[in-house]
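Lecture notes, unit on protein representations.

Consider one protein chain, 385 amino acids long.
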Amino acid sequence: METIYLDHNATTPIRPEVIEAMQREWAHVHANPASQHRPGQQARWALEHARARIAELLGAQPHGADPDRVVFTSGGTEANNLALLGIARAANRDGSPQIIISPIEHASVVGAAECLLDDGWRVDSLPVTPQGVVNAAKLDGLLSPNTRLVSTMLANHETGVMQPIAQMAQTCHAAGVLLHTDAVQAAGKIPVDFGQLGVDAMTVSAHKFHGPVGIGALVLGPDVTVEPQILGGHQQEGLRGGTESIALAVGMLTALELACAECDEATRRMTALRDRFEQALKAAISNIVVHGQSSTRLPQTSNIAFPAVDGQVLFTALDTVGVACSIGSACDSSAADVSPTLRAMEVPRELLGSSLRFSFAVTTTEAEIDEAASRIIAAVRRLRD
């Protein structure tokens, strides 16, 4: 039985055009971009071209007197760590320094915040509505003269629910506080504009939009001071030591160019696939709950609770019949605890353990959606019986 892959929020298959672009770089650009000779200069040009173009595609301004910056990392986790730990450790630590996050953040943000907590920082959490939206109206009451950074994701990795980042940016800047957003699940799926969002730092990851695994980026505003977390090199303005991979940077650029060029049609198509999938399940299975359905969501994400069915058992049953999905975030898939996102949304206990995440891509077809729904319906009925 052919497997139907519905776990694209965990990672997406790399596009052939991306592989071809990377192969060209591997074949023709082999020098270290930090070297001063002519081959090194050519490598440097290719790297900086990719950096500037990625910035432009993400709505940043890479040119001018005070340019925005793109720092290449190994992926979203490192970029989030660089944002939280790098910005916090470079900040003024007078008084009792504070950072504010939400309870629905990725584990890489939560882990970095816990590290700051161990260092003596105060960590506060924004509440989340039952619809999965961070309550931005509560932010002003949490801000204090000691607040150094606020970090909230642009769209949740489990439910796909969009967050009011632009509104939060206005609140933060009025108080003189920096705002970071984890845009890993949103970039390449919907238009993401660093300038229009008004954030000071933004995380993206290439393998979430059909690019290569092993490269991500932290976009930084011109006035954001960051203490490097990887030391030993002067690369990337001293913000992240280590020789950059030109092929990975070009692969990331190629994937992002393709995603941006196809964004409108891809958004329309994935939204239709998601709605078709949810409607098919609702029509055949009683009492299912789509988490965050009443909120604005990413087009490719559907998190569904199947009452009276154990989620882990259903996940195994679906894997057996060739439907690849996930229980929460792939980064937390080995944890025995239930989803922090669903807990923050105050999802009833009986639904917490029966929820699975399904996520689609531009490569997903209607035939796959229909067949996957058929297999899921059959599996749920067998388990309920």
